[in-house]
Structure formats: C-alpha cells, structure tokens
Design goal:
Elements lengths: L2 E6 L4 H11 L4 E4 L11 H12 L5 E6 L3 H7 L7 E3 L3 H9 L5 E5 L5 H12 L7 H7 L5
Parallel strand pairs: 1-2, 1-3, 3-5, 4-5
Length: 143
C-alpha cells in the first residue's frame, strides 16, 4: 500500500479531509495538518510533508491551499521534491509522465472537490515515462 503525505492550510482543510475520506481504503495516509479552518501559515505543514517525501518515508504527497501556489512553492524548496500545481487531470498526468513529480498541489478555491479527487487519482496512478524525460528531470536540481 502506497504511503502518501497530505497537508493543507486553512483554505484547503475541507478538501484535505474530503480526500482523506476518499482515499483511506486505497492508501496509507499521513496527515501533516492543518486540523481546522483556523488561519495558519502553510509552510508549517508543507515542510514536514515535503520532508517525508524527500527522505522516502512517503512515496507521494498531496497539498492544498487556496491557490495551490504557496504550498507548491514551499514544497519545491526541498531538493528531493518535484511538486506540480495541477487544476485538471491532464496536468497531473503530464507532471508524472514527463517530470516524475512526487507531490501535487491543488487550488481548493478554484476547483470542485470531485475534480480534486480525479486529479489526485490521475496523479497517483500515472507512471513516469523515463527515457528522454529522465535527462531533463536530472537537470532540474541546482547543485
């Protein structure tokens, strides 16, 4: 069973809870918070989730905030993380196929919960194509 890190700020809290309920039978979910709709700073939850993906404790990560931008930017500060902002299933698929992304960020204020679920399922069930894409992925990290 794949182990998935999941985190959100206050704007993404309800989506996080919805997705946890939808995925709980298929995946082992590790919830890094937040645990309410009270205003919080997203990096406080994203960094522990991204660290879990980066160090291999979790295979993938799912993040939510209002726009998806803040959580994605925070996650991508981690050397071992490639986090994609996805607002449709096709973007999620391409982020896996071409970029071998291991985290996905979703904009809770701009998509329906059901669409979020479709995006996440597409992300988690799409494989990296490797080949010519591996060379490009290898060039992403600054040394």
């Amino acid at each position: 069973m794949k182990k998935i890190a999941i985190a959100a700020d206050h704007a993404g809290f309800e989506y996080k809870e919805y997705i946890k309920n939808q995925l709980k039978d298929q995946y082992e979910l590790v919830d890094f918070g937040t645990h309410s709709v009270d205003s919080v700073d997203y990096p406080d939850f994203v960094h522990p989730a991204a660290s879990a993906v980066e160090n291999g404790d979790c295979e993938f990560g799912i993040l939510f905030c209002g726009s998806g931008q803040g959580v994605q930017l925070s996650a991508n500060k981690h050397q071992g993380v490639r986090c994609a902002l996805a607002w449709m299933p096709e973007i999620a698929a391409l982020s896996r196929q071409h970029n071998n992304c291991n985290m996905v960020a979703l904009p809770a204020r701009f998509i329906a919960k059901e669409l979020a679920q479709e995006i996440i399922e597409k992300f988690l069930n799409t494989d990296f194509e490797g080949g010519r894409h591996q060379n490009r992925v290898d060039k992403i990290t600054c040394k």
